[in-house]
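hi! just following up on the protien thing from before. the input was this:
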Amino acid sequence: MDESFDTLKRRLLAVIAYLTFVFFMGTFGYVYLEGYTLLEGAYMTAITMSTVGYGEVQPLSHTGWIFSIVLIIMGFAGVAFAGQVLVVGAFEGVWSGKMEARRLKRKLDALNDHFIVCGYGRVGTGAVQNLVEANAPFIVLDTDPEHNEIMKEKGYLFLKGDATNEEVLLQAGIKRAKGLLALLNSDPDNLFLVLTARELNPTLYIVSRANELSSEKKILRAGADKVVTPFISAGQKMATTVLGGAGVVSVMPTTEPIYNPPKWVLVEEDSEFAGKTTGEVTENWQQNILGLRRKHKDTILPPPDTKIRVGDRLFMVESIAKSSDEDTATEKRVVIIDDNPTILGLYARLFKRRGFVPITADNGRDGLETILREKPLAAVIDFMLPVLSGIEICQQVRADPANKGIRLVLFTADEQKETRRRAMEAGADDVVVKSADASKIIDRVITMLEAYEATKVEPTSPTPAAEKPPVRAPEPEPESADSLLAAPKMTPEPEPAPSTGENGNEPATGIPPEFEGVIELDEMMEMIGGDEELMIELFRSYAEERDSMMADIEAAVSDGDSEAVRQSAHKLKGTLIYLAAKNAADLAYRLEVAGREGEMSETPALFEALSAEIAQVDALVATLLAG
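and the predicted 3d structure came back as:
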């Protein structure tokens, strides 16, 4: 609520108080001076203040006349003051744009799982158009008044502000956003934007523009998931098209895709392309779609999620050689599905360090759609997820034989044999019991992929899928539930840990004596390979999510909802394990067990103990981040 609205409210309250005082003064004045009853006094006061003048209840004395004159003046002044306040307030709200600013704030507060487009230039215009066609929620950040006026006319949600400014990004809801497009005209600006965005939201999917090839690696190191060089890419595609169309294919570099001459293809009812996306056509049929014509409207380089309809015309070329870069990107893709943002950020970072391209989702439905769309080599799926469980995801992925090459890894805190049996029957290739050793799942996935690749041979004749059981990684000894709360040591990767000394945000190197045992900092550093930058991200992610997680547990305990206690405590426990906060993780685990077994009488005391321990964790995290 802004300052002008507070001022208007105070003025209105003052007017109401003044008119109320005058009314009561008039009522009791007539009662005292003229001997009226309370009702007669109130009636006389009302018609006097409003200047209606129906007539006196009883003839007034001279004193009564004088009192009435004073009352008329005071009442008229009050009414005039009220009118002035209302009219001026209305005009200020409309003409100063403050009402519009309040409406904008309400829209910004309502944004969730949206996309932030930074820059509404030529590239940004195309990006926004695709988001509109996909019916995806988005907001645009731009400083150019002309661009903002165009977006206002089109009805787009936008903010006039510098996208590299942290406050502007926070106002745009970056912590609740799903993705960000860095499309500023300057490579240094995009680099700084990516750095700021990655710091504010470690799990955000960021695609950045780069005008120069030399900037691409820098922006990727800053935290971008993908970098596109629009002018170079467009030029290469145009050159490829014209050379292919002219038949001059021998001069194409061997490291780039080589194409046959392009052609127009009409999508008819019996076409195998109908109902598929352009990305699926490119991947499964080796057809690169350069343009799409639909109802006399042409789209150049349609996005890969564009659905192809009957009646569409596709301008396409058949790829006869793929670049090594494309092969690498496909081979390294992995989907991670977990509803805990801290765990998502951790595994995305660690998979990326091992050469994978991580793609994340925080619920079962989005995770399933991501697997079916991206066709990764592997998917790491949490057992307990909102909307769809990990078991249901495996079942639906395996329902389509085309997905048989996707390796599915289910990770769970439940080491029971029945859970493993259900997962394997649903189509999982491996089941991993969660532990604090974050590298364990990554190693299992790599081992499983290597074993699977080793068994892939070119078949001489079709072999039924049922005759070829899936290859799974060797199974380790089952872990007990208590081992989840221990922090196994991992061997740090040989690469040097990134330094964070320049940003002034690195945690302190030691634990203050009063916090001894709250977080095992040395063990946490070993778990994440000595990556202090990742440690900061985990601490910040915990600080952002802690209030909501504790509120969920408190509400579940208060309502006596055992299933909600189990789920909410399970989520918090997952975060605490990777912070090496053993005491707090143990209490969260005991709450989870109490919820699972329906022992709700124990939950209030456990929650009270957990709250006290969490307060210690909070204080230590704040100290480490400030240190």
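The chain has 22 helices and 16 strands.
The chain has a mean pLDDT of 76.
cheers
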